[in-house]
Design brief:
36% of the residues lie in helices and 22% in strands. By secondary structure, the chain is an alpha/beta fold. The termini are far apart.
């Protein structure tokens, strides 16, 4: 066996290996899971297509004896680059099929394909300055360099399955429209993907041609997940979650407080970018503004749909304002 840094592979539960895959993001690592099912393995999530991530998987495969025939399938929770980026590499490394929910597959090939559309008009409409909007739009195309999707065959759909071996397959929207979570009821383990994280609140974003009310979908998902008998949550980033219901309650309180904060500040019309600047007071990189604006929009649309905010267009920009009390 190869020597490998002990921090790369940990064992959060018997038969479950947690793999720290480096990603060039503030979170630093994507935590993938190699799960023993009988004499074979299921792999959950992969990382971005970078030399460091590839080498990590080569070393891990040698160390754990992961080879074609031993790894029978790879599941991807959702289409974001730090989860799906190595799909083609994994398919070649283990000669294995890659699986996602069908709608999430469609999104992945649309976003990272040749026909992805510019988001610059979307950002400008919501108040982002033109030069920043151009940069934020370019980031989406730069992300393609860290994603390589299989084409022959493509990623395969899981529909219409609801179980896979000992796992229940859950569709949980919010972070993306069709995120896949694995629930192992016999062991009271939930693989939470990016839906529930231990420290930060997962990004819930509003995008064109996606869920028109993603925050509502997310809060409903949290209410359902809170009812599951779960002993431990195994997320794709940050620390393991020992008290899943407690963490869900914290996240829900955060969103309630954020919504009230937004409502309190909108006595005059604001663009989404103007609201975001008042919400996110710490310094942000231009890349982080992409998520600050889209997350702010998720809250604004949530409040607008509940008729506590109004929305109007003026000079090709959109403005939100608190609704007048009757």
């Amino acid at each position: 066996m190869d020597n490998i840094d002990p921090d790369v592979i940990t064992l959060p539960a018997e038969g479950i290996f947690r793999i720290a895959v480096p990603v060039p993001l503030p979170l630093k690592y994507l935590y993938s899971y190699v799960i023993s099912v009988g004499s074979q393995y299921l792999v959950l999530d992969l990382g971005m297509d970078t030399p460091q991530a590839r080498q990590t998987w080569i070393s891990v495969s040698h160390h754990l004896g992961l080879h074609p025939g031993k790894v029978t399938s790879v599941f991807i929770t959702h289409f974001h680059p730090d989860h799906v980026g190595l799909a083609q590499f994994a398919a070649e490394l283990w000669d294995v099929p890659i699986f996602m929910w069908e709608e999430e597959i469609r999104t992945a090939y649309n976003v990272f394909g040749d026909d992805s559309r510019s988001l610059k008009p979307f950002f400008e409409f919501h108040g982002v300055p033109s030069d920043m909007a151009a940069y934020l739009d370019q980031e989406q195309f730069l992300a393609k360099s860290a994603v390589r999707l299989p084409t022959h065959p493509r990623i395969q759909p899981l529909e219409p399955l609801t179980t896979w071996g000992p796992f229940e397959l859950l569709t949980q929207p919010g972070h993306t429209d069709h995120q896949l979570l694995l629930y192992w009821p016999d062991r009271r383990i939930l693989f939470t993907g990016d839906q529930i994280l231990a420290r930060i609140t997962p990004n819930i974003s509003f995008w064109p041609d996606s869920d028109p009310d993603p925050l509502s979908s997310y809060l409903h998902s949290l209410q359902l997940l809170k009812q599951l008998p779960v002993g431990v949550g195994l997320p794709a980033h940050e620390a393991i979650i020992p008290d899943l219901p407690g963490r869900i309650s914290e996240i829900m309180r955060h969103h309630d407080e954020r919504a009230q904060h937004i409502l309190d500040m909108l006595d005059t019309p604001h663009t989404a970018f103007a609201v975001a600047k008042r919400l996110f007071t710490r310094p942000l990189t231009q890349f982080q503004w992409r998520f600050a604006v889209s997350e702010t929009l998720a809250h604004l649309e949530y409040l607008r749909r509940r008729q506590v905010l109004t929305f109007n267009e003026h000079h090709d920009k959109g403005y939100y304002r608190a609704a007048k009390s009757s």
